[in-house]
Design brief:
- The complex is a heterodimer of chains A (423) and B (265).
- Chain A has 423 residues and is mostly helical.
- Chain A is built from 16 helices and two strands.
- Chain A has helices at residues 31-44, 51-67, 74-99, 107-124, 129-154, 158-177, 190-196, 202-229, 237-259, 266-284, 286-296, 298-303, 308-334, 346-356, 369-387, 392-419; strands spanning 182-184, 336-338.
- In chain A, strands 1-2 form a two-stranded antiparallel ribbon.
- Chain B has 265 residues and is of the alpha/beta class.
- In chain B, strand 7 and strand 8 (117-118) form a beta hairpin.
- Chain B is globular, with a radius of gyration of 20 Å.
- Classes of the chains: A mainly alpha (423), B alpha/beta (265).
- Chains A and B meet through helix 8, helix 11 and helix 12 of A and helix 2, strand 8 and helix 4 of B.
């Protein structure tokens, strides 16, 4: 067996083969070809990752572009990116509860209540906008705290707790808004400007599009260095470079297309940053590991000494807080909070986005990126159908069908994984 | 292999009792295990094995009796206290997270951190060291535990119990539901634990496993001690007789009837 990057034999224990590749039953797959082959094998065995979503997205965009070329115009795509942020933010929280194998059905009402609190404090009470934002977020924290305490104390299914919470929060939202039922935020306020008018300078968008893949590549190279030092195998360099290159290409094209119109909204940057940070929290911290462990097997997690109740509490709190943040962004984008904010399909769109993006309803599998992917799919559909001036009844039916498809794919790939011995 | 009962016991229980309401689950149990010794704990269903195991593991606290660990008397109130003392337990259902990989499972709840982030490199390196030490046959530590065989899963569970450098390891029915080769794999592992100088408590229904690896066999019957046997000078018949209660058993009764006849002939 030949390996290209053998660690220098300074250490007498160092063997030619890295410690994790010594078992003779391992099917060796050196180089880029091997890496591609291994990826293909993984997909075949049902470990689909985000592949179905990406394929689905390409199909959806192709169909809408064929029906109306305006769909892929810069102007429409900028609208699309700005529209999706509020519910996308809510979906990040939904991903977290789904990872635990729980659910929060009240995220829509929570976002509506947060918008109402923001509007009342900011417009009616004339408080500083930051105070209003913090108060609205605090409402989310408290709601999640109550859910978590009820869940831990009484063991009531989260489904029921949050269904009750949905009604309570809706009542609170209507009460908070008072008699008028609608409060408009002043259009010239910084918050509204941030959500609807402020875009990254073109150059900065390009710089970010190059810097992010570079940071990714550097961190992977440093990991490789540490792995080689520890006598473990390192990821093949060409594969890493390919990935970073593809990411850079994708970001540069996106930046170019969006920059031809207004550009990349600050709100979009905030959303993507939140997704990346939550992904790091889930994958790279002990807290995230315990979230995945609880989603996989609560009893095992408990016996391993994980404070299960604290994890449930933090996740319910985070979910409600993300919902509140989504509500704030929604109110800011529309420059208004009213009784129907966070109503209608907000709830289902947020949950559907998480599931469509590839987070399993059964717990333990998924990633923060599914919030991003799923929300792009959902808003592509609703935006595309709106462009075709299809009425909202059809929109509901189509979105419902896509959600169903996503859940079916989830169930099928779960079965296939079981057959191929993957969790 | 010579038995090592001359060593001071690392865990020793005297007169331990436990009752649940009207049921006396354990009564005056004496039990000990020395370093580098494998003691099998056997008994019929309802004999009190599980209760004794859970008492040692800290799940139940005994109503009476003394527990001496490593030379000093202790009272164990919780599983984490037992772990802190150096008593590791591998329960029958293993309690692994199928969706996590081997490294994730091994270090679950004891993650190695580097700053605030998980130190995956050190954990993977440490996993390989641990698994090689047990001569465990696991092809990759980066595959989800769901894809491992029963014996490999048992190996992961046992390896995990060794992370905290315990002095006593309790294995609850480690070979139940395993095939021939996998059973042999796990029994090899038990030998390896003994060589490392750990006290091993093996709970099993399978006499051939017990005879294969244990140094001594402690029999429980209806919540009481019913004899301790050295494997070197006993037979499985004798142990089974102690498990089932020799005097009341149809098989032994027949054997007893036959014995005088054979002497006459």
């Amino acid at each position: 067996m030949t390996t290209a990057h053998t660690p220098p034999p300074a250490d007498p224990n160092a063997t030619a083969v890295p410690a994790d590749l010594q078992d003779e039953r391992l099917i060796a797959s050196p180089g880029v070809g091997g890496w591609a082959g291994a990826t293909w094998q993984r997909v075949k065995s049902g470990d689909l990752g985000s592949l179905p979503v990406v394929v689905g997205l390409v199909l959806i965009w192709g169909v809408f572009y064929a029906l109306n070329p305006l769909f892929l115009s810069s102007r429409n795509l900028v609208n699309l990116t700005v529209q999706m942020v509020p519910i996308g933010t809510i979906a990040i929280g939904v991903v977290l509860v789904l990872l635990l194998g729980e659910i929060d059905l009240s995220v829509g009402s929570m976002s509506g209540l947060a918008g109402a609190i923001l509007a009342v404090l900011f417009v009616h009470q004339g408080l500083n906008v930051w105070v209003a934002i913090v108060a609205a977020l605090a409402a989310g924290v408290v709601t999640g705290l109550v859910y978590g305490l009820l869940f831990n104390r009484f063991g009531v299914p989260s489904f029921v707790i949050t269904l009750a919470g949905l009604l309570v929060l809706l009542g609170l939202q209507i009460r908070t808004l008072g008699k008028d039922g609608t409060i408009n935020l002043p259009f010239e306020s910084g918050l509204v400007q941030f959500a609807s008018q402020q875009f990254l300078p073109d150059v900065l968008a390009y710089v970010l599009a190059v810097a992010v893949p570079a940071v990714y590549l550097l961190s992977r190279l440093r990991t490789n260095q540490r792995r080689s030092g520890a006598g473990l195998s390192a990821a093949p360099l060409p594969a890493l470079a390919l990935r970073a290159g593809l990411l850079a290409l994708l970001l540069l094209v996106a930046a170019y297309v969006l920059n031809r119109d207004r550009g990349v909204s600050y709100m979009v940057v905030l959303f993507i940053a939140l997704v990346v940070v939550m992904d790091l929290f889930i994958r790279r911290t002990a807290w995230g590991r315990s979230v995945l462990a609880i989603g996989g097997n609560v009893e095992a997690a408990r016996r391993a000494g994980i404070n299960v109740k604290r994890v449930y509490l933090t996740v319910f709190m985070l979910c409600s807080t993300f919902a509140a943040l989504g509500g704030i962004l929604a109110a800011a984008r529309l420059a208004s909070a009213n009784q129907s904010s966070g109503g209608a399909d907000t709830n289902l769109n947020a949950i559907a986005a998480a599931v469509i993006g590839g987070t399993s309803l059964f717990g333990g599998r998924g990633s923060a990126y599914s919030a991003l992917l799923g929300i792009v799919v959902i808003f592509s559909i609703s935006n595309g159908l709106a462009l075709l001036s299809v009425s909202s009844d059809v929109r509901f039916v189509v979105t419902g069908a896509v959600l169903l498809l996503a859940v079916v794919i989830d169930s099928l790939s779960r079965r296939s994984r079981a057959a191929h011995g993957r969790a | 292999m010579s038995t090592t009962t001359t060593l001071a016991p690392v865990l020793s229980m005297t007169g331990v009792s436990k009752r649940f309401g009207a049921v006396q689950a354990l009564k005056d149990i004496d039990f000990d295990v020395a370093a580098g010794e494998v003691v099998a704990l056997v008994g019929d269903n309802g004999a009190g094995k599980s209760t004794l195991v859970k008492t040692i593991a800290g799940v139940y606290s005994p109503d009476g009796g003394t527990v001496v660990f490593d030379g000093s008397p202790v009272t164990i109130h919780s599983p984490s206290e037992a772990q802190a003392l150096g008593i590791a337990t591998v329960f029958q259902d293993l309690a692994l997270c199928d969706n996590l990989d081997v490294v994730g499972n091994l270090f679950l709840g004891n993650e190695v951190l580097r700053g605030r982030a998980l130190d995956e490199v050190t954990m993977e390196q440490e996993s390989w060291r641990l698994l090689r030490e047990l001569s465990a046959k696991i092809p990759s530590v980066r595959i989800p535990v769901a894809s491992l065989s029963g014996g490999q899963r048992q190996t992961v569970a046992i390896a995990r119990s060794l992370l905290g450098a315990p002095k006593v390891v309790m294995l609850d029915e480690p070979t139940a539901a395993l095939g021939v080769a996998q059973t042999a794999e796990v029994l090899n592992l038990v030998e390896r634990l003994r060589e490392k100088g750990l006290g091993v408590i093996l709970i099993s229904h399978n006499m051939s496993d017990v005879m294969a690896v244990a140094d001594r066999v402690a029999v429980l019957r209806l919540g009481r001690n019913n004899g301790v046997f050295r494997v070197a000078d006993t037979t499985s018949q004798e142990i089974i007789a102690a498990i089932t209660g020799a005097t009341t058993n149809a098989v032994t009764a027949r054997a007893a009837r036959r014995a005088p006849q054979e002497e006459q002939s």
